[in-house]
Write a structure and sequence with these properties.
This protein is an alpha/beta fold. It folds into 2 domains: 2-160 and 340-352, NAD(P)-binding Rossmann-like Domain (Rossmann fold, 3-Layer(aba) Sandwich), CATH 3.40.50.720; 163-324 and 355-380, Dihydrodipicolinate Reductase, domain 2 (2-Layer Sandwich). It has 12 helices and 17 strands. The protein has a 9-stranded mixed sheet with strand order 16-15-14-13-9-12-11-10-17. A 6-stranded parallel sheet has the order 5-4-3-6-7-8, sandwiched between helices. Strands 1-2 form a two-stranded antiparallel sheet. The longest helix has 20 residues, at 353-372. The chain is globular. The chain starts with a helix and ends in a 5-residue tail after the last strand.
């Protein structure tokens, strides 16, 4: 899931022939031409790295969206955009694209340290903005981004795609239904063989990325923790560097006012994990729930709703998908479709900038705790 995305090595330089405009989408096993005659959200993509390429392809397959332009500071990419067959305008200057194109929304797919200045330019023009996770490179920048929304009524979404994956949505529904009763503790891990030697680039420069495995990979699971259980009262964390100038692994202890405790362990420098592997274990007064990339497993003491006593297995293939197709990994198509739909209906997205700020708040507490070797109260991170 997350790992499928991280293993995606798409690059314009490797794609000499791509389907013209991608103006089709998958539905019920068929490729159908766009037929939607209603309003389309005129969309621009900012940043043509791995995530920019992914969102470009996805937007071109959503009937309610019209991909108008793309921007990247690397002028050399313009010829690869032309070779791809996309009927869009390439801009090397963001200001030119924002001035010349009549846009409704943009996708920000650039390094985290650029998110705030880009958001300021886009929100001031009343553009709806989808920002790839993390929301920003720091808690302070994330707060500034949210403050932009006080004067501008735009749709503002953050890219935590697990919120759109059927398996994790089903788990949340069951927790809200109370299948476990009171949840007493949780244990979450995510392991990935991404950094097994010294690496360079903005990704491993804290001044540009905001951090390492915690802000990049663990942030997905921190979002999941806030989605399932809300904000903790305290966090206690330790991070370590093996190969990078940013942290390569981290362990986080969460404490809640109601007595719930949990642990999140993240490591991108552990051999043997070609894809990011997620394992979640929840223990409650009515039993146990296990969630992985592929299934949910329950063992209940008493039946609850439509879930019987004893063992129940729910595989992701049993849940199907609301997406017409999957590209990059499960959930990304639905994430983009949902954002475009929110732009049309003016409804608040499932994962807003406020949600992104909550994740950033916890990440700030994690880094403070690791530096000081002490627990950090979230009320003091403000």
């Amino acid at each position: 899931m997350i790992g499928n995305l991280f293993s995606l090595q798409v690059d314009f330089r490797e794609q000499e022939s791509l389907p013209n405009k991608f103006n089709f989408y998958q539905k019920e096993g068929k490729i159908e031409e766009e037929t939607n005659m209603g309003k389309k959200i005129r969309t621009g993509i900012i940043g043509m790295g791995k995530m920019g390429i992914l969102h470009t392809a996805l937007i071109n397959m959503i009937p309610q969206a019209e991909l108008v332009s793309v921007h990247d500071t690397d002028r050399r990419l313009s010829k690869y955009v032309q070779k791809s067959g996309m009927d869009v305008v390439f801009y090397s200057q963001l200001e030119d694209m924002l001035e010349k194109e009549d846009l409704d929304a943009v996708f920000v797919c650039t390094p985290p340290f650029t998110h705030l200045p880009i958001a300021q330019k886009c929100v001031s023009r009343n553009l709806s903005v989808f920002v790839e996770k993390p929301l920003a490179d720091s808690f302070a920048s994330a707060k500034q981004m949210n403050s932009l929304l006080e004067k501008n009524d735009v749709i503002a979404a953050t890219g935590f795609n697990l919120a759109h994956v059927p398996l994790y949505k089903r788990a949340n529904e069951m927790l809200e239904m109370g299948v476990l009763g009171r949840v007493d503790k949780f244990n979450i891990s995510v392991y990935f063989s991404q950094v097994l030697r010294k690496k360079r680039g903005w990704f491993y420069d804290k001044s540009k990325s905001g951090g390492g495995v915690v802000i990049d990979i663990a942030s997905h699971l921190i979002y999941l923790v806030t989605w399932y259980f809300g904000l903790p009262q305290k966090v206690y964390a330790r991070t370590l560097n093996f190969y990078s100038d940013v942290e390569d692994c981290g362990s986080i202890l969460f404490e809640y006012k109601d007595g719930l405790t949990g642990v999140l362990d993240a490591n991108w420098s552990i051999p043997g994990y070609r894809l990011a592997t997620i394992e979640i274990a929840l223990e409650g007064e009515n039993g146990f729930m296990e969630i992985t990339n592929d299934y949910i497993k329950l063992n209940l003491l008493q039946p609850t709703g439509d879930i019987g006593e004893g063992w129940t297995n729910i595989h992701k293939i049993d849940l199907g998908s609301t997406s017409h197709f999957d590209l990059g990994s499960e959930g990304f198509c639905e994430e983009d479709r949902h954002f475009i739909e929110c732009c049309l209906t003016k409804e608040k997205p499932d994962v807003s900038w406020e949600d992104g700020l909550n994740v950033q708040r916890i990440i700030e507490a994690v880094y403070r705790s690791s530096d000081r070797r002490n627990p950090v109260d979230l009320d003091l991170v403000c």
